[in-house]
Amino acid sequence: MKVRVESLTVSVDGYVAGPHQSLENPMGVGTSGLHAWAFSTRTFQQKVMGADGGATGVDDEIAARGFTNIGAWILGRNMFGPIRGPWPDDEWRGWWGDNPPYHVPVFVLSHYPREAIEMEGGTTFNFVTGGIREALALAREAASGKDVRIGGGANTIRQFLDEGLIDEMHIAVSPVIIGAGESLFHGINLRELGYSCKKHAGTELATHFFISRDSG
Amino acid sequence: MKVRVESLTVSVDGYVAGPHQSLENPMGVGTSGLHAWAFSTRTFQQKVMGADGGATGVDDEIAARGFTNIGAWILGRNMFGPIRGPWPDDEWRGWWGDNPPYHVPVFVLSHYPREAIEMEGGTTFNFVTGGIREALALAREAASGKDVRIGGGANTIRQFLDEGLIDEMHIAVSPVIIGAGESLFHGINLRELGYSCKKHAGTELATHFFISRDSG
Scanning every residue of chain A, which has its alpha carbon at the shortest distance from the alpha carbon of B170? Predict the structure, then answer.
């Protein structure tokens, strides 16, 4: 059972999201093109957009890995939706419509309790108020032997990295400059935490780096 | 006449040098493999090491660009040598022996004045105490129409970037994790300064990003 980050996309200058995030601009300003490699793939088009088409090839193979052998997901609350503070009601059910692309239990980190939501297609959204270790314990159990994928956002991934809880991390570096926003690496010493880069692969749209812990 | 940064190598986590730099470990700890792409090239072997051999190919073509049409260099003092504070005497003449790989005037930023040093092969080391704009004015004049290359280190490049003085920057991202040290991008908003990534090319050893200003 591994804890994995997949398809986490970073700009050349190290940002996973730009400044001034909003409902209209959930990734913040200056992020145009950041996820071009993912959008281009058949995996993303089919699994996330519910559309036909999309390209096969290296980018697609890498995107597809991210959906293989995943038994549960963990999401930060901002990745689940734009609402901050206490839940005003039960209306918001994620960005993804009635049948979200997860199809397994999803654990959403939140400071505010909420009843679990059962969606179509096998996805349930469970709200965890006890922090990342509680979420991970619940996700491990729900995954019953499969891997747990940490979906994001940056803040959530940084919390897991900080405690050395991530086993494997795939980072795609896109050829864009964002300038400011959420930095993935600043202030986290991945080397001291035992991580190193084991492999990389470049395509027209991104360079993929595969990072994992040397021990444990 | 352009001001260029060439072959500046960054780890996946955004560091150009590790912590604890010393005479024995001039790049700091954890930087093993960072410059593997450059060392591998025929250009580096011939021009910097004075050796035979080295590989041709994309990495080499890119390394060779960095020595093309350069009329003057600017170096930070730490890149010139390990001595800090006032010059104790005139003994230190750079890391590179009697015939350094520059073969043009080099302007070394320092807080402490020193007489210029004429080396073999056309390199002169000139010491500039007035800061980066004075160094750039002198380098431009000395380059007589050719480009000025900012050799580094990180702190010097960041000073030039901060003032938008660099026209073109080639960054190589190596598949290594350094963990801590000198960050190239932290706190500098390259997007606001007008920079964007125009091109990239991946090899077995690095991904090369070509960044330039959109205007000016």
Answer: A12
Q: The CATH number of the domain where B134 resides is what?
A: 3.40.430.10
The domain in which residue A164 lies consists of 3-16+33-85+98-213
Q: Which of A195, A199, A202 sits opposite B207 (nearest CB)?
A: A202
First to last CA, chain A: 12
Q: What are phi and psi of B63, to 5 degrees?
A: -60, -40
For the question of whether the overall pTM of this predicted structure is more than 0.80, the answer is yes
Q: Tell me how many domains chain A contains.
A: 1
Give alpha helix (H) positions in chain A.
36-39, 42-47, 58-65, 77-80, 132-143, 154-162
Q: Which residues of B touch A175 (CB under 8 A)?
A: 197, 199-200, 209
Residue A92 lies in a domain: no
pLDDT at residue B50, rounded to an integer: 87
Substitution target from A37, A162, A177 for chain B, most B beta carbons within 10 A: A177
- Three-state secondary structure string covering A43-91: HHHHHCCCCCCCECCHHHHHHHHCCCCEEEEEECHHHHCCCCCCCCCCC
A177 and B211 within 8 Å at the Cβ level: the answer is yes
Residues β-bridged to residue A174: A11
Any domain includes A209 = yes
pLDDT digits (tens), chain A, 216 positions: 999 999 999 999 999 998 887 777 778 888 889 999 999 999 999 998 888 999 999 999 999 999 999 999 999 998 998 888 999 999 999 989 999 999 999 999 999 999 999 999 999 999 999 999 999 999 999 999 999 999 988 899 999 999 999 999 999 999 999 999 999 998 899 999 999 999 999 999 999 999 999 864
- Is residue B23 situated within a structural domain? no
Q: Is residue A24 part of a domain?
A: no
Amino acid at B177: I
B177·A202 Cβ contact <8 A: no
The residues facing A127 across adjacent strands are: A108
Test B209 with A12 for CB contact under 8 angstroms.
yes
Considering only CB atoms, which chain B residues are within 8 Å of A189? 179-180
**Rounded Cα distance, B165 and B142, in Å:** 17
Cα–Cα distances (Å) from A158 to A154, A182, B161, B174, in that order, read 6, 10, 28, 22
